[in-house]
Amino acid sequence: METVLVTGGAGFIGSNIAETMALQGYRVVIIDDLSTGKRENIEALLGTGRVQFFRGSVLDAGLLKRTIRANGVSLICHQAAIPSVAKSVLDPVGTSEANITGTANLFQVASEAGCRRIVFASSSAVYGDGPELLKVESMRFRPKSPYAVSKITKELFAGVFSQLHTIEIVGLRYFNVYGRRQDPSSDYAAVIPKFIANALDNMPITIEGDGLQTRDFAYIDDVVEANIKALTKEGISGMVFNIACGSRISILDLARMIIEITASGSAITYLPPRPGDIRDSLADIGNARKYLGFAPEYDIAVGLRETIRWFREAVQTVPDCEPDVALR
Questions:
Q1: Which residues belong to the active site?
Q2: pTM for this prediction
C-alpha cells in the first residue's frame, strides 16, 4: 500500500479520512498545526503503528519536504485550511495566507518531490448566489467572501500545477459537511453541531436569518469515501467535483428535525443574517457519480441520527469535571 499524507489530519474531516485509510491498509502521515484540529481526534490512531503525526503548518516548506521524502509519500489528501466564511470576513489576510499560500507551498513541494496525486478540499462557496439553484461544476465563480476567493484560487493553482508538472491534482467542492468529531464549541462552528449541542442541553437553537435559506448537506462517511475514490480513480487529473447528498433542506426544517430526533425542549430563536452567507445551495453530483463512482449513502435524516448518536456517546464518555470536552 502507498503512503498518504493528510494535511489538517487532526481536524474534523481530516481525522476521519486518516482513520479510514489506515483501516484500509495505507500508511498515513498527518501534518496539523492544531490551530483548529485536536490531537484527541487522532490519539487512538497513533498507537496502531500505521499512523504518524507531525505538528506543523503547510506554510513550512522544510517540514513538508522532510516529511514527504522521509516517509515515501506518494498521495496527499489536503484538508488543512481556515474553514470559516465568518472568520475570513474578519481576517481575510490570515485566511489567504493559510488557504492560498499554504496550498501553493504544498503543491510546489509535492511536485518537486515526485508525489503522484493530490486531492484537495474546495467548497460550494465558489458558486456564491448565482440565479441557478442547481450548482454545476461548469458554472462561473461568484464569490461572496474571502473564504470563497481562497477556494477559487486553490482551484486555479491546481489547474496550473497539473499542467506544468507531472503531478495529478483533483479538487472536491464540499457542500456543508457534518458528522462525528465536528466541533460545536468554536465561534465559527457549522450549524449542525451547534444545533445538536444546544438541543441536547435543551438550550435555544439560534438561526441567522429567516431560516428559509437552504443547504445541501454531506455526511462525513460519504465525504471520506469521495476522497478515497478521488485518490485512486484513474483519468480524473485536473477535474473538480461537487461532493454532497444531492438534496436540500431549509435551516428551519433542519432545526426542527434535530429537535424532534433529540426529543428536545429547545426553542428556535433568530438573529440577523450573517455577512457573506449564501441563500440557497443544491449540488449537481452527476459528474462525481460518473467519474468517481460516488454514491452517497446517507440522506439528512439518517446522517443526523448517526451524528446525534455520536454526540450522545461522546457526552457519556467524558468525566463530569470536563463538561466542555465532550463536544469537541
A1: 147
A2: 0.93
